[in-house]
Amino acid sequence: MMLAWQAFIRWKSLLAGSARFPDRDRFRVYRVSGGSTQQDVPPLLKKYFPDVEPGRSLKDFSLTGLLSGKYRLAGRPDKRNLSFFGKVKRFVVRHFLTDYEQVAGVFNLVDSVFLPSREKSWFTPGIHVVEMFRVHLPEFSVREISEYSHAFTNRVIWLLALFSRRRFMEREKGMTVFCNVTDPYLLKAYRLLHPGKTVCLRFHDMLEQVAAGKNPNALRKKLHDLISRKVIDRAESYHEADARRLDIAFRPNAVNGRVMEAVDSPARHYFYVFVGMYRSDGDRSRLDGLAEIRERAVRLFPSVAGYIREHVILSGQRFGNRIPYPAYLEMIGRSEIMVDMYRIDPGEGLSFRIPEALLLGRKVITNRLMVLDCDFYDPSRFFVIGHDSPGRLEAFLKGDFRPLSPEIRKRYDSREW
Questions:
Q1: Which of 72, 143, 239, 390 has the fewest Cβ atoms nearer than 10 Å?
Q2: Per-residue pLDDT for 172 more than 90?
Q3: For residue 394, is it left (φ>0), alpha (ψ between -120 and 50) or beta?
Q4: What 3-state DSSP class applies to 338?
Q5: Which of 218, 250, 282 is the last residue of a domain?
Q6: Range of 239's domain?
Q7: For 56-81, what is the mean pLDDT?
């Protein structure tokens, strides 16, 4: 209910002609989760509340101050290693205080629905994904959309759109893509205010992640109901099996061929590069399957030991410790081999690493067994952990590289979308 009220506050501000939060520069927010630097602050939180002080813990706040509402907090404090008094404070924060990280998310959803869209707009969760799509889809205006979603709050947003559609409606034609947005009321609200847009819903994560705990058959029915009612025009997934389950189009991840040509370097500074996140803060086993391959490669070619780059971070460091996507592209453009290791599930689908490697013309070491059934697979290009014998590594590294056919390259070039 409290966050629905925040949606109303944001809508009222837009109705008055201001996209700026009143007194936001004097509105200090203390972040009690995540990292301790300004780089660790989520971009959406910083956008709506610039005065954020990160790195705080519950010890920094008195219980009376928390109960009185004196402090504005963002995030949820860790429950580990808390004293009894700390657990009491955490209970107060979780059940009685507004989480301003969620407030920023609600403000973002309201803005995404009510503010004018560009002729080609792309809304996606995650600043790292925003960066990728901005590079590979330069003709689109790519913006971050909050992953926070609450059914009641989204209904309020729809009701506000219904009430004020004469004020906010834009009739310009164009195309809008929403990634991983499954709430029908957000999509209905957008359609009300942007009737001229062709709206596409794209899933770029596995169904189990996008619709955790939901019945796939129910989601399939909901998607086709949205299409039949003209709320959205079409839906697609990056994951072929999910596309079949939902009876929607399959479109794999793709990258911009012109961009990949620009970053491709004739010089090699790395033997291989891997950049990614651990499976979770408690599970750091993501690269375990790579250890034997790394050791064998170093035995075969001792000099490569100093030319291996692995950058793996915790999810709580995903803002401050991540490598910006343009910098990452420069790294792989100077790498001899690319490594692609699944993060959560062996069947999670093809990451962007695969089309990056295909269009760069790089060999790939991966543990994604699904590549064996893909149209681009060739043993000269792929060493598949869990399928190939470690003894094949030497022949793979020394062997000639079979180039892709132009037809297959086009399927993984986003310029062909």
A1: 390
A2: yes
A3: alpha
A4: strand
A5: 250
A6: 116-250
A7: 88
